[in-house]
């Protein structure tokens, strides 16, 4: 797997690759380099021509209303972070949802208002027009108004953790087993469809981690980088990673109240550009770092409310 983008304070999760041997040039290095440069330049120009520029596309009537209003209103997940028992807590926007919402606002040239919504509030908020877009927990396509967020090639790999002594050794052994994961997890669909697990969803990844350690589920699904880091911690010495390939088919979905071809074409262009610029990878890496920090809080006695 490619090296993960991680915050500097978290350190390397895995050893660096060994240095590649230096290849000796052939008899025509100048010609070869020139041809390679011309080929790559041609591919680059062709690719740029094929990729739609969101700045040149109309965002459609719904998002034009947001431009006329002067701000973009986006529904997001919100939940409290780990805190000491008895301490006052407040729900905070999910970092991934918030970063994506602000990126879409930047593409539109608009400030963003985040509206934290519980799962049962989201459909109504969309239908009533209280939000322009919904990014909260949209892990699977749902209706004509969904636009997929391209999967991350560097951060899209997932992994599963189980107790060392548990008799599960492959995907078939997961069938009928309970599995903890965060609401909106990009791994939800492949786990349910291919492996027949019984999903238990929690408001956030750290809530799912706390529930798994409390014995509420037999397995935990999360990003591979976070799983590898957790298994290096002393409190996780009794757990192991299941040797199972798990990739996110998409990083999520952004939803409109209804299908609107112009808006969906604009969203697809903006989301594709966001991924190609590396911003999606950076946000997911930052998410892994923040989750690792929250997991350390659990070890220090803080709890999820």
TrEMBL record:
<protein>
    <submittedName>
        <fullName>Bacterial extracellular solute-binding protein, family 3</fullName>
    </submittedName>
</protein>
<comment type="similarity">
    <text>Belongs to the bacterial solute-binding protein 3 family.</text>
</comment>
<feature type="domain" description="Solute-binding protein family 3/N-terminal">
    <location>
        <begin position="71"/>
        <end position="292"/>
    </location>
</feature>
<dbReference type="InterPro" id="IPR001638">
    <property type="entry name" value="Solute-binding_3/MltF_N"/>
</dbReference>
<keyword id="KW-0732">Signal</keyword>
